Amino acid sequence: xxxxxxxxxxxxxxxxxxxxxxxxxxxxxxxxxxxxxxxxxxxxxxxxxxxxxxxxxxxxxxxxxxxxxxxxxxxxxxxxxxxxxxxxxxxxxxxxxxxxxxxxxxxxxxxxxxxxxxxx
Length: 120
What we know:
Blueprint: E1 5-10, E2 13-19, H1 25-36, H2 43-55, H3 57-78, H4 90-108
């Protein structure tokens, strides 16, 4: 489907590690679905935005399409329906968002205090 790297290794050296150019309708549909993750508030959307900030848009779309293929394959293989909460650990997601907000507040000269309960 052209969604994973085509590693060309010879003699222990990597000569090329890019995705192949293919004309596959499913891959195109998955890339379109991956682009829509940018606006999604799901754990997959959070993951996509993190990857996009690291790799750039094109590589992030390909990586997200590859992740969607793996999710679809697991659904077919194990005959299970999709569980939206499974890809992300809610505690880790909350901790990551809190850490990001604290970092931004420190940069702007503010201090965050919790409204309910204690900070872990």
